[in-house]
Protein 1
Amino acid sequence: MKRSAIILSLLIALIVSGTFSAKAVAEAIYPDPEKNITIVVPHAAGGGTDLIFRKLAEEMKKVSGVNFLVTNITGAGSATGTNEVINNEADGYMLLAAGTHTTAATMQGLTDGYKKLDYIAALNWDPFIVAVRKDKPWTSLQELVADAKSRPGKISLGNAGMGGATGVASVGLNLAFGKVFNVVPFNGGADLIASVLGGHCDVGIFSQSEVVANINSFRPLVILSEDHSPLASLASVPTLDEAGYPEITVPGGSFRSLMVKKGTPEVAKKWLADTAEKAFYSASFQKFMKDNGLIPAFYKLEAFAEYDKGIIADYEVILKEAGLYKMTN
């Protein structure tokens, strides 16, 4: 029986049973093959988050036959894109490319964020790297810090937005070194990359995938994760401990996930989670993660919700210490 005939039969059954409602119809026919499913990336095109979700959308389309589209809605440190999802219908046709940027933006009071979102699938971690353009004079973090201390406020330290994890990391580093840097937020990773490469910003905190994409132009100084990069090309980049700063603790990477607005039908959430799982474990997406040094962390639905509790607890401590915590219950 063709899908259109199945849908017609379901609609007739709903009418006969007296349960004909928008929610009942959505649950009966989800996903509607005539509709696109949109993934809102709250950062500009070309950054690490954007690249990851474009690849995931491609694989989700392959494994499901349903059209997944990525749209970039930037602003307010990821809050503008997050609010687009929160303000839309809870029907399963719009997802948020979420992660630590969602956690940070919510805690800074920029959006209701995860308080009004439900969990679909946790995906991976992308380690952070402090990097400069190759023609800059600093060859190590110690050289950079020494120069910054000799002329406080003159060296700019860029991040992808104060509502994101690189924003929190940049504030944490600046506090640790006595506020010697001029911390500058940009409108997403792509904007930060262009500013550092264009000489408008001295130093940037990037996701590892962004450094990999620009490896011929960047000089990595330190990786902020506890371990070395899994990529051979970046394996020699020292950790904070190895760079001589074992006492400094800042967000070490960007976590990526999929979330939907609260109230989305359970059948839609389950279908999306199952589809994300198939796409995640596809040979193509696994190769993409390996090539970009992404650290797998797949959980879905309730398991993802439990996993996120740990991230939220860690961020509360960091943001409160930095004086950035503004979230109200």
Note: The chain has two domains: 29-126+255-298, 127-234.
Protein 2
Amino acid sequence: MEFTFKNNQIAEFRKERHLSQRQLAKEIDTSQANLSRWEQGLNEPSILECWKIADYFDVSIDVLCGRKEY
């Protein structure tokens, strides 16, 4: 099975909470540049970074990656 990270899900969750990229990046201990690249689909976060993001938004990694509906 091929897996594709749903990068715009991060942006959707971030915007729902009215967070800037800089604010979220600080919360999940990454750079704003990394977060921007993830949201643009230029790079994908590692599994550890996915856990941090999913934990921050209190969703499963499946939801974060688009495998299940929120």
Note: The CA atoms of residues 9 and 64 lie 6 Å apart.
